[in-house]
Design brief:
By secondary structure, the chain is of the alpha+beta class. It contains 14 helices and 12 strands.
């Protein structure tokens, strides 16, 4: 139905027939939060909600974009590897991110397109609507130009391209959008990108619930988000200086190859040795990394716009970030094994551990997400955790199929009808609330 409406809107706006229709789904990450850009695995799945696009080729290099939702105004720009960005937060930047990266890869021979977007992924919910828009834009431009690209290569390009909007994340969202498969979660490993489909346990589903706290994309929110990758980069600098006999790490995910933890009795003893304090000033971090503060900023703490990241008021919390990343990577491995043997109880337990680490060690949860996760567990979910970048968005829970409706009713009553009116009466209570199983990845349909 939505695709029919989208096609009608395209015809009305551009006075021609679309030649291609694209679907790019959102995702939930089952476990493995903020591990992707550190070079460790994640375990997401595609969901049955998507960004859709209808497109046609233009004779020139103009990209003319429209959206069925009126809050997203029309935009036009030229295909080029260096496209001037719109204001931060403008929806067109996600389309520009895809077009600029493809123009860089395939040259200025790419012609432009007319494209109408729509979709049903809740925005600012941590379900990757923005990355789905990037992927849909890329697939549309490739399709109308008759260019083929392997999904893995495209996922890597779009992960690089999305940094155009200022987020310094990994490649999970783009990869699962392109590589998702019905009935299967997708284990993703990075640098280089590798994937494995993991059959989801029979008789279980995933319940997704929106905390109603929006995961904002403002400049201040980007600084808050990008602080975590920066702290991980500082950790890498300190590790490299502490072990001059190893090949330098590019990221924390290189640690297993260097067998660094083999030198210690435990992960805690490693952290006690290298990061004994809970937080570090810029000057102390530079001293531990064998750098001057100025060089440390230039190498590890610059934004995409070339502006130094501000030093956090509470210091760089390097120890807790490293502990989260390393323990979370282990939880992904154990979760894959649990799912493969059908052990949903163990998988749920690992999800609970992950949420605690996301909250305490990585500092990306909120009081609302913590409340929602507690309600889900008390209602009968085997495990529940935040999903996505954090600071708002959704929680995800593993539930037995025969208990899904009961848990949904409990969440509606205790969170949406009780907790939210009492604590946030200003919020619209119509947030995402659905049960899903792993769904197919992105599709392109030719109408020619």
């Amino acid at each position: 139905m939505l695709m029919n409406e989208l096609s009608d809107s395209f015809r009305s706006e551009f006075a021609e027939e679309p030649t291609h229709c694209i679907s790019a789904p959102g995702r939930v990450n089952l476990i493995g939060e903020h591990t992707d850009y550190n070079g460790y695995p994640v375990l997401p799945m595609s969901i049955p909600y998507a960004v859709y696009a209808c497109a046609s080729l233009r004779p020139d290099r103009t990209v003319s974009i429209r959206n069925m939702q009126p809050q997203f105004p029309p935009r036009e720009f030229e295909t080029d590897a260096s496209i001037p960005p719109s204001a931060p937060g403008d929806w067109s930047n996600y389309v520009k991110a895809a077009v600029a990266r493809l123009a860089e890869r395939y040259g200025t021979g790419l012609k432009g397109m007319n494209v109408m977007f729509g979709g049903d992924i809740p925005s600012s919910a941590g379900l990757s609507s923005s990355s789905a828009l990037v992927v849909a834009s890329a697939l549309a431009l490739l399709a109308v130009n008759g260019v083929e690209c392997h999904p893995v290569e495209l996922a890597e390009m779009m992960a690089e391209g999305e940094r155009y909007v200022g987020t310094q994340g990994g490649g999970m969202d783009q990869a699962v959008c392109l590589l998702g498969e019905a009935g299967k979660a997708v284990r993703l490993d990075f640098f280089t990108l590798r994937h494995m489909h993991v059959p989801f346990p029979e008789g279980y589903s995933v319940l997704v619930t929106h905390s109603l706290i929006r995961a904002a994309k403002t400049e201040n929110a980007l600084i808050l988000y990008n602080r975590r990758p920066a702290e991980c980069r500082l950790a890498v600098a300190i590790i490299n200086h502490s072990f001059p006999d190893i090949i330098p790490l590019a990221r924390l995910g290189d640690m297993p190859d260097r067998r660094i933890l083999d030198r210690f009795d435990s992960l805690e003893s490693f952290a006690d040795r290298l990061f004994p304090e809970e937080s570090y000033s810029l000057e102390t971090a530079a001293l531990l990394a064998g750098e001057t503060p100025e060089h440390l900023v230039k190498k590890y703490l610059m934004t995409r716009q070339g502006v130094p990241m501000p030093e956090p008021d509470d210091g760089f919390r390097i120890r807790s970030r490293v502990l989260h990343v390393l323990t979370e990577a282990g939880r992904v491995d154990r979760s894959c094994r649990a799912i493969e043997r059908g052990d949903a109880v163990e998988f749920g337990r690992l999800m609970n551990e992950s949420h605690r680490s996301c909250d305490i060690e990585y500092g990306i949860s909120t009081p609302e997400l913590n409340t929602l996760v507690s309600i889900l567990r008390d209602a009968g979910a085997l495990g529940a955790r935040l999903t996505g970048a954090g600071f708002g968005g959704c929680a995800v829970a593993l539930v037995r199929d025969d208990m899904a409706d009961s848990i949904l009713r409990t969440v509606k009553r205790e969170y949406y009808e009780t907790y939210i009116p009492r604590n946030h009466p200003e919020l619209d209570r119509n947030g995402a609330l659905f049960v899903a199983k792993p769904s197919p990845g992105a599709t392109v349909a030719s109408l020619l």
